[in-house]
Design a protein that fits this description.
The structure holds two protein chains of two kinds. Chain A is mainly α. Chain A is built from 20 helices and no strands. Chain A is globular and about 80 Å long. By secondary structure, chain B is of the alpha/beta class. Chain B has helices at about 20-30, 55-85, 100-110, 125-130, 135-140, and strands spanning about 5-10, 35-40, 90-95, 110-120, 145-150. Classes of the chains: A mainly alpha, B alpha/beta.
Chain lengths: ~425, ~160
């Protein structure tokens, strides 16, 4: 009984209103996304049907039975898409294509942009704020579930490349930022949190590092504001930039995993760009976040700090700062790699892994609703001081260097196959 | 129970409130009334504790609390020594929460005649970035006079009794 009681979060009722708000927001947006997607598919089908019919007639005349069978299947699929909206060939829903395809206005964008608009134009009453805050980490179960998309060969190839990429960028950024800060007389507290924050995981790293380097509240506010500002800007800029320079989905996933600091934001940007991009980003990010404890240990060493109490020592710091939940992600990868028939796969209908894959988007949607509703322009306005200069320099350098590196690596080394 | 409490002064330990403290001490001295200094510990930074991969959350919250306590103690002790030096009757109040809400509720629960607070000499982007507590309080308080002392006012010299 006492074990059960210890599992209940103290003051849990205060999280309910905000959590319900995020669930309701996610529910509405997912439905809009579904409708928009349906009409976009119908629009594409309506345009494609006459062309397929023409090709089919040509194939029939040429007596090419294989092509005829393939085209008939395609035609059937397109007619199904049209039937879903009760339309006929020739009908157009160009507005749906404009929003869904041209503007890429999918559920991620709707939740983030909608959340930002609600928070900053209409405001969110205080009663919802605790629950909105707690909704963001709901992305975590979604990330664990995504383990069913990978096999060990992906972890070794993409994760290995990603780990190397992440380690070089994380420690390269952290060492450079801490060195530059010390060189220009920035306080150890600010230098430490900016080094960790710009190196790995943004606000998460600042939270892990600030007690260790004894950062001052003003510096923390500057650093968090800067990280949020650049994270939010990149979250919206990078998907469009990626399409403009025509990087492949796996390359984009690796690029955001290197360039965007806040993990929730990078997953949002990658999910927005496409499924392959998300798979690569999540795997590289899993490798990346495991480096958080090492960054804290590096900051302790760099500033010659003496930690005391429960967190003293290498292994104790590793244990206290290690993101334990990521082990769930790797356990699912092991199960998926073992090819156990009873568990099935994410694309094998009616199996446990298929069911898990079907719900991950809901965890993401609730989490993204929490992210959108928590992005406050007032928080970003706090970006300033030396933190802004350091943050802007590090963010720009990482974005440019990250792009060059992923373009050099190429697509195949970054593509998640899922065993297919 | 409501009591008459003279002047309320908002302090945050920042440089720009120094002029406001001096003005408040001068006014309380001239009017011979009690000066109450209020310091609000704003838990703003705590809201980030549950960032998605945040590790060591308890440690972070304890660190923020410790910083807020130290900052509050410094602000209060600086005010108390200035008030004692000026020979003004004074008391201090430390509250936790949103500064606008807490200062407003302190003003509502006691009958203060006046609120005094400082303002940063910000222009351009710095002014846009500022949370501008004086404007928010002036907007929120319709019935109580508010004296906003700009940072640029500088420290006024104590009058020579001779």
């Amino acid at each position: 009984m006492s074990l059960l009681r210890s599992m209940i979060v103290p003051g849990w009722p205060r999280y309910i209103p905000g959590l319900l708000l995020c669930i309701a927001f996610a529910l509405i947006v997912m439905n809009i996304d579904h409708v928009l997607g349906k009409y976009h598919k119908a629009d594409a089908a309506s345009a494609a049907i006459p062309k397929i019919e023409k090709k089919l007639a040509e194939a029939r005349a040429a007596g090419d039975s294989d092509t005829v069978a393939g085209l008939q299947k395609k035609l059937e699929k397109n007619r199904e898409s049209l039937e879903k909206v009760g339309g006929r060939a020739g009908d157009r829903w160009s507005w749906a294509t404009f929003f869904y395809q041209t503007l890429q206005f999918k559920y991620v964008a709707m939740l983030l942009i909608g959340g930002i608009l609600i928070r900053n134009i209409f405001g969110v009453p205080g009663v919802f704020l605790p629950g909105i805050g707690i909704a963001r980490p709901i992305i975590k179960p979604g990330i664990i579930i995504l383990g069913v998309h990978y096999v060990w060969s992906d972890v070794i190839r993409v994760g290995g490349t990603g780990l190397l990429l992440a380690a070089v960028f994380i420690f390269g950024t952290a060492i450079t930022v801490m060195w530059v800060c010390r060189r220009f007389g920035v306080s150890d507290g600010l230098g430490g949190i900016m080094g960790a924050g710009t190196g790995v995981c943004g606000v998460s790293a600042i939270i892990a590092t600030s007690p260790v380097v004894n950062a001052k509240p003003r510096d923390m506010a500057y650093a968090i504001g800067t990280i949020l500002l650049f994270g939010t800007a990149m979250l919206f800029i990078m998907p469009y930039l990626g399409r403009a320079i025509d990087v492949s989905e796996p390359q984009f996933g690796a690029w955001v995993a290197v360039a965007i600091l806040n993990t929730a934001q990078l997953i949002a940007a990658a999910e927005w760009f496409g499924e392959e991009s998300r798979n690569t980003a999540v795997l590289i990010n899993a490798a990346r976040i495991m480096l958080i404890p090492l960054i804290v240990i590096f900051a302790v060493w760099f500033y010659g700090l003496k930690t005391k109490g429960a967190d003293a020592g290498f292994w104790k710091t590793m244990r206290s700062k290690f993101p334990v939940f990521i082990l769930g992600f790797f356990i699912l990868i092991i199960f998926n790699s073992l090819n156990i028939d009873a568990l099935g796969g994410p694309k094998v209908e009616g199996t446990p892994f298929w069911a898990m894959n079907a719900v991950y988007k809901w965890f993401f949607a609730i989490g993204f609703a929490g992210i959108g509703l928590s992005i406050s322009i007032d928080d970003m306005k706090k970006a300033g001081g030396s933190a802004f200069l350091v943050g802007s320099g590090a963010a720009t350098a990482k974005m440019i260097l990250g792009l060059i590196v992923v373009l050099l690596i190429g697509t195949e080394l970054l593509r998640v196959t899922g065993g297919n | 129970m409501e009591t008459s409490s003279g002047i309320l002064l908002a302090i945050d330990g920042e440089q720009h409130t120094e002029s406001a403290i001096q003005w408040a001490l001068d006014l309380a001295s001239v009017l011979n009334c009690e000066l109450t200094a209020v310091h609000v510990r704003d838990p703003y930074l705590k809201q980030f504790f549950n960032d998605i991969y945040a590790q060591g959350r308890e440690e972070y919250l304890e660190h923020v609390d410790k910083c807020l306590v130290i900052r509050g103690e410094e602000a209060v002790s600086s005010f108390e020594s200035a008030a004692a030096k000026a020979g003004v009757r004074h008391r201090t109040v430390i509250l936790d929460g949103d500064p606008v809400e807490k200062i407003r509720s302190e003003l509502c629960s006691h009958k203060y005649h006046l609120l005094i607070l400082g303002r940063k000499a910000n222009t351009g982007i710095a002014a846009w970035r500022s949370r501008d507590l004086p404007s928010k309080l002036t907007d929120a308080l319709k019935d109580i006079p508010v004296l906003v002392v700009p940072e640029s006012c500088g420290l006024r010299k104590q009058k020579d009794p001779q």
